[in-house]
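Service request form, structural biology core

Requester: graduate student, group of Dr. S.
Request type: structure prediction, single chain
Budget code: on file
Notes: please return the result as structure tokens.

Sequence provided:
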Amino acid sequence: MIPEHISNRKGPRSLKDLNPEVVEYLNKGLIETKNLMEWLAADQLVLLKLVLAQLGKSAWYEDFEVAVNAQKKPTANSNTKVIGETFGILTSDEKIYGELKTHTSDLVRCWACWAQSTQHDSVPDLLKVMKSYAADTHFGVREVVIFASKERMIADLDTSVELLSKWTTSRDENVRRFAVESMRPIGVWTKKIEAFQENPAKALPILNPLKSDSSKYVRDAVGNWLNDASKSQPDWVTALCTQWKKESDTKETAYIIKRGMRTIYKKQ
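Core staff response, request fulfilled:
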């Protein structure tokens, strides 16, 4: 049982506010991180050694240690990626991934996401496997799945748009949000999509179904997508928002328009 003061904690504002007891639970994989500070504080190699022992694969540890230490400038983010990619090299065993992707620790689920993303070249196969990570209950996993899949989706953009347009009807707001967020023209810490910067209309099969979404999480993503596009195609964004306002006179659409037009408003 996890003590109540641990399970009900709030994430620390800075690393100096970290509770050492929380870090111990994180390194044992017994709890999820609450925020970025906890994610940065976790020792992924310590956690990895325990996870490998649970899987009966302790002999693999040296391969991971070598891969992590070979980095010139290791960070928490790069360690997550390297550990995941090393898993992808070492095994394709679905039983192992079944254990990793359902683990209590969000860090372990992130490793699984990176690992499985490396094992699928085609966009249909990739998205089929990534969908469960896109639906994950933890914000960290939902971000990692974008990092792990976006570049391959860009390489086959038409297929990606076609498949993700079907995700817009999902009952899961996390899945709907991924459909938009993963395809942002600029995004955050991810590769830009030049095709959308030049011709944002290519993404309308994803955007139109979500123009009045019930979820703020999804509405924020749609608004941010439009704001990205407004940096290169302000007239197109203005015209689309005008059209949406006529077609969908709802507070949800109004919210998206305001968010999507924020850069344009600043320049007026």
